[in-house]
Structure formats: C-alpha cells, structure tokens
Amino acid sequence: MRACLAVLLATSALLSGPALASNADKLARQAQWAFERSDIRPDPAFRFGRLPNGLRYIIRRNASPAGTALVRMDVAVGSLDEGKKERGYAHFVEHMAFNGSTHVAEGEMVRLLERHGLAFGADTNASTSFDRTLYKLDLPTNDAALLDTALMLMRETASELTIAPEAVARERGVILAEMRDRNTWQLRDTIASTQFLYPRSLFAERFPIGTAKTLDAATAERLRAFYRREYIPQKMTLVVVGDFDPTIVEQRIRSHFESWQSGKAELQPTAGPVRSKDHGRTTIYIDPAVSERVTMVRSGPLMDEPDTVAQRRESLLRQVGYDVINRRFLRLSRQEDPPFRGAGFGTGNVFEAGRSTRLIVDTVDRKWRRGLIAAAREYRRALIYGFTKAEVAEQVANIRTALEDAAASSDTRTNGALTGVALALVTDRVVPSLPADALARFRALAPQITPEAVLAAMQREAVAIDDPLIRFRSRYEPAGGPKAIRAAWEEAMKAEVAQESSTDLAGFAYTDFGPAGLVVSDQREPTLGIRQVRFANGVMLNIKRTAIEKDRVRASLSVDGGDRLDTRANPLATEMLPFLDEGGLGKHSADDLQTILAGRSVSDAFGTGETSFDADALTTPRDLELQLQLWSAFLTDPGYRTEGEVQYRHNMNNYFEQLRATPTSALRAELGGILSDRDPRFTLQDVKAYRALTFAKLKRDIGERLAHGAIEIGVVGDVDEDQTIALVAATLGALPAREPAFHDGKDRPPRPFTADRRPRVVRHSGPADQALLRLTWLTRDDADPVEALKLQLLERVARIELTDTLREALGKAYSPSAASSLSRTWTGYGTFGVAASIDVRDVAATRAAIRKTLVALRETPVDSDVLQRARQPLLEGLENGLKSNEGWLSLVDRAQSQPDRLARYTKAKERLSAMTTRDVQAMAAKYLDPAVGLEVLVLPNGVAEPAA
Predict the structure, then answer these.
(1) Is 449 in a helix, a strand, or coil?
(2) Assign residue 101 a region: left if phi > 0, alpha if psi is -120 to 50, beta otherwise?
(3) Mean of the pLDDT values across residues 164-177?
(4) Side by side, which strands form the sheet with 540-545?
(5) Is the pLDDT score of 12 beyond 50?
(6) Which SS3 state, helix, strand or coil, does residue 147 take?
(7) For 596-620, how does the pLDDT look when each residue is reduced to its tens digit (9 = 90+)?
(8) Residue 26 banded pLDDT, cuts 50, 70, 90
(9) Nearest alpha carbon to residue 70 among 414, 346, 534, 390
C-alpha cells in the first residue's frame, strides 16, 4: 500500500516541548521535496517551487500530445483526517467542489469546463483516498485563457467553496447513491479483509465513502469546518504538465494562489497500528460471489527508506526475488492439472504504519488445501535453496528492456506519464530522475545481481510467514473449519522440499516462413499520408511513420473471421479464441514462450471482433521483426494445448458463479438475449455448453480462417517504412496465399431486435436496495456518417440532460449514462441506450424523470449552451485524435479494407460543427420514442416489482 504521512501523537498529554519539536520536524520533512534529501539527481526539465504560504508546485513543459496539458491539484487530506463523526467528509468536500464557490455559481463549474471542451468524468474529475484528494483537469488546448480558467477553478476549490446548505442537501443524495452503487461483493470483501488483517487500525475504520449515519448527519456547517481545518496551502501541490511556457505557468500560479493565507498545519493521523506480534489467527469469509482464496500474512515495522541510489539498488534486487517466486507460481498454474488458479508473494508498506508480507493463493472451489500446500512448498523452496542463474537472468532481461525502452523514448513521454512521475514525488516521495540515469545505475548494478544477492535482499525486507494470520474466503465452508486450514499450513511448512533443476530452452523456433513475399502494390493515401502495400499472397500492410513516440512502434493484426463465425447452430465457435495464447505454439508452450521472449517487447494476445480476429502490440523498432514472427507463428502453428483449456474453464466457472452478484453483471448476462428474442448468437448459453468447449473444437471452427482468411496489418510510429515492408515480406507476406478481402458479414442472417417491447425484469443477488433501469431503442447501422455523428451528439446531449435531472436535481443516480452503438456489419442494426443505477424505492420517480427528459428532447430544441457543452468535447477529441500513435493506429489498422473511415475522420469536424439544435431534436424524435423503448429493470431477488 502507498506510503502516507507521518505519525501524529495521539493524546494531548504527550504534546510536551520535545514532542512539539518532533512534530515540527516531521512537518518540515513533509514539506521538503524528496530530492532535497537524496543523492538521486532530479530530472532538470521539471520546475519545482514553493510559495511563501507553503503551497508547492511542479511544472513541466511537454508537447505530447502537442497543444494540450494536464492540471492536477493534490491535497494531502483524506479519510484518515476525519474524526469519528466526520467519516465520509473528505469525499463529501470533494463533491462540493463542483457545487459552488465564491466566484463560480453552483453547477457552473462543470458547464464552464464543458464549454471549453472538457467532458465531465473524462476530462474533469476528482478522487478521494485514505490519505489524499486529487482534482484533475485535462486541457484539450494550450490556450492561455483556458489555463487561467483551470487555475482559477483550482483556487476556488482550494479555498473558496461555499458549501451552501441547499447544495449539501442535494449532493447528499448523489453521495448516498454512490455509496449504494459501490456496495459490491468486492468492496465488502476488501473491508472484511482489512479489518481482519489490521484490527484496531484507523484506516480499517476510515474507508473514504464514509457511513450512512455520518453522511446523513453532515451539515453545511460541519463540512465547512472540516474544509477550513484541512484545506490549507501547506497540504496542496499543483502539477501542470503540458505545452505551456513554464515561466508563464509559474506566474499564473503565483497570481492565483499567493494571496491565500497559510493555515495551521497538523500531521495526518497514523493509519495504524500495524501490529508485528499479531499472528496465529484464522478467519473464514463466505460469500456466494467470491472466488476461493487463502491469504497468509505477517506484518513488521516500517522500513523507513528515503529514495536514494542505495535504496533503489536494494529495491531492484528485491523485485527480482519476488518476480522469480511469482514466475514459479505462474508456471505451476499453467500445468494441465494445476494445483491453483494463481498465487502471489510480495511485501509492501502499509501507509507509514508498518509493512506486510503476503502469500495469496487462488484456487478452484473446494481445492484450497492442495493449492495452499503447493504454494507454501514453493515459497519454502525459494527460501531454502534460493534461485537459479537462469531464473534471475530472465527477470533481469525484462527489467533491462523496460529501462532501455524508457530511456530511448524519454523525450516523447506523454503528459500523462510525466504527470504520474510528478505525483509519485508528491505521494510516495520518489525522485523524478532521468530514465537515462536509471538505466546507467542498472548497468552498473547488473554484474552484482546474483542469485545470492537477490535472495539476501528479498529476505531483508520480507517478513517471515511464521504462524501467520490466515484468511480463507470462499463460496463454501471449508471441511474441518479453521483448524483444518491451520493444520494444512503447518503441514506444508514441515514438509520436505527438494531443489528443482532448471531446463535450458532453445531459441525461438519460428524465424523462417519461406521466400519473402513480393510487393504487388505500393501507394500512398493522399489525405493522411498512409502508405498502403499489398503483397502477392494478398496480405495488406498500412504504415504511418510518426515522431510522436521515439523508439516506439504500435502494430495491429486483423484476420478475417471474428464473431461472423458464430451461428445459430454453433453460437460459441469463437468463444475460446481469447485464450488461444494460453495454448502456446506447436513448438513452445505458453510458459516456455515467456522465458524465450524475456526481455523482448512483444505481445501474443488475440481478441475477436464482429468480422475479424484482432491483435495489438506495443513494441520497438528492434523487436518489430520478432513481433511479426510471433503473429505468423500463431497463425500457422497455434499450440492448442490442454493447459489453455484449463485456464479457460477456470475463468468461465468463476464468471458464472459471479454472474448475478451485481445489477450490472446481471443485466450484461441477460440483455443480449432479451434484445435478440433469444437468438443463440447473442444469448448467454447454459454453463454446461461452455464447460464442454475444447481447443479441438476451436481448431475445427477457426483453423480454416487462420490459414486462409484475409490479413491486414497496421504499423505506426518510429519506423523505417522500407525496412518494415521487408520485415512483413519475410513473415506474414511469405505465408501461403490468403483471401484477397475481408467478408463483410452481410450474408449472415440479420441481427434481430425484438418486436416485443413489454418491460422485462431481471434479478440480481446483491444488496436489497440496488436497482438498475435501462431503456434501449433500435436505431440504425453506421452506413451514413452524418447520421452516425448526429446520434453521437445526441448521446452527449442526453447524458448532460440526464445528469442534470437525475443526479443534480433529483439526487437519484450517481452516474446516469447514455450510449449510441451502431454496427458496421449488421445491416440496419444499432442501439441507443440510457441507464441509471438507483435505489429500488426510486424506480418510479426515475422512470418518470427519464421519460420527461426524452419527451423534452423530442419536442423542444435543446438550449444552445447545452449543444455547445455536448459538442465541444467531441470537437476537441477530433482535433487531438491524431496527436497520439493510438489515434493514428485506429485509422491505419484497416486503411485498405475500410477506406471510408479515413474520409469520415477528415470530414467529421466540419460535419459536427454544422449540426444544430434542430438536428439533435430530429434524432431524438426519430429514434427515442419512450413508447417503443424496451425497458429492462434489474431488481434484487425477493424484492417486489414496483408499480408502473
């Protein structure tokens, strides 16, 4: 867990002279930059500063993406700062930042940002944790006025919130709705685990969402008192990274924040205690939704380690040790009859209260004993015999590659990456050093990374798991109860273990695919400059060289097939495709591949789309050849090994067990079948059908497509175009002849949308107050680019109007949604959906509010301001879409088989700018008739259906 602030003495009786001096020292240390106490040289491109009132700032000029910036305000205030009667106040104050301040009227902050192109949620957000609150603004332009607006709003948030009683009353409902929505089996499991492992700790009783009792009792006066007490300049750090002159940014920060008067700084209370002597306890946690897991934990004192060269060397050695053990666990989980689904071992700080070492074992239901013993044996084997040179070398190769890649691309790091580096300095006191310096330190250390040094470093940090705390969670009570669990652990710790020998593997076996393919067509698309190449075997290659990311290449592979192969008679034909990589290759298992490819930047993951099998990879110029070889090998000689089937079944069994645990998952399971009149292609089948699937069946269903289907490759980034053509020619271009074009899928039976518009009810097994209301309309396919854009604009308008109605006015829903989804391949098929997660008591009111919103959209043109707030983020997205290689790849990947997408993109801004409020109204009138929208209401088991 993340390190937090220093310890605050608990009782006033201890606040004598020496104690006060100690606190002053701690406060002074907290205000320091980590590099002021470190021998690590900070990256000189960052500008660090501190105002006289104590507010700190970090500025970094960066132009990736060009003409954009990120603004963050970190507040060292979280739920740990709350009193017992203030639980949830830090999060409540975060919500109030959008509800009025001295110079910004309630509700106007979001609207103001939307007018500038910042979408609420995507570009305008905030979050509260145990120890801090972070406010986030993503600026789509480097307009000086927008920067000034962003800093003005941050200052308003920092010191000028009005926290009016009426706004508090409205926002309380939204926060309680968020509390209701977040009450999932995952959160309940986390809370129970935390309270067992860290009893009587403060953080176990201070989850940021708070309690219903304290939130109901929160008044504007109490929230303002918390806000004024905690929001002081000494606890604030501003981060601005983007395409701005740092001197101008610094001036604007001073202009907005220098007048803020300093408050009285206090240390954040310690999150602990974390008790080193706590051991020998066992607990059982049963929930129908959780997968089986056994966790063993021992805690020790905090190892206070400032960020220095010596500490980083120590951390790297430890990392290798933990990675080797976890690599062994992964190998065991990939066996044909694995003892567990997965396991993990590691050590981490618990804020600044202590450190914990954990061994976690995930098992198949009722197989916990075998898994626990196997994982414990491997843990002990490592401690007794240490590691082999080959194991250490594999992990060192991965670390070396990561550091080399980071150093090579450091000049083109994104705003997001650099903002993360800056915030790590603030939250974890990690010095933002140059990637080249980190690589140099690694190269100096590399000869000393021996198995002996790795084991010693790991043992210096890891707490011995002797007589640990053991937490068992499952859907089923364990046979024998706590005593049996403890006995299994003790048995494993006493059993003899033998030293395993390592096996040397040969190199990658797939480097020769025959004579290089011949280029039969080579042209450059005139508008976007995409080079389009076709080989004699039919393979298509699209290349776009960019300077956006130095030493980075993004590549895509599409193979004809995809969900088009799923039929009514064989609806699960492609179901196992995402697990194809788990079956390895004919000459290498998946586990062997991980070792063989250690230190190489390649990916072997595949997915399935509507009409194609798809893969994406982030690689480097030096590893592009290997990436292409790997893809060629998967198409020509997939392994279809049994261990891949095992991984699939384990995941599918767990999926079905959790299917109805939340309203969202229950709706996801049922919606496809409801909308399609139970067409088996879109309907969840019985679990037995999934359990019966095999790789042999997958091979029969997709093998012909892998061998003959059309292929299109996209390559974007720091590439030599001619060299890339030669690499493809020697790999995918050298394969036997492929089909020349992708099937459009229009020969399939049409995708149905039910004519039965009666409301449906779906049941979930979660909390009794959670409901989910969704309405879905049939719209159209995306053949008409203008109408598709109009529906996208309607989606944004509907989201704004629903948020204003359900969240702000009624306080009934935390995050209402609207979404338009148009098919490219199913003729005439598309959907528009709106949904709201609500309290079961509010179903009727929510249904009425949604209907009222839809009727208004259909009958009256929206306000021009709403149109601007909906459209401007879309326009800014289009403006910035090709400032990243990911954006380029989304067009390059299918530039030959789907050339219309290029024209759509280049014309979209003009088309969108020309749309009017009448266009939005026309789309709503055409498609969003409340009378024909199909309503699906998700209710808890046993709760009566409310009256219409």
Answers:
(1) coil
(2) beta
(3) 94
(4) 519-524, 531-535, 540-545, 711-717, 553-560, 612-619, 607-608
(5) no
(6) helix
(7) 999 999 999 999 999 999 999 999 9
(8) low
(9) 414
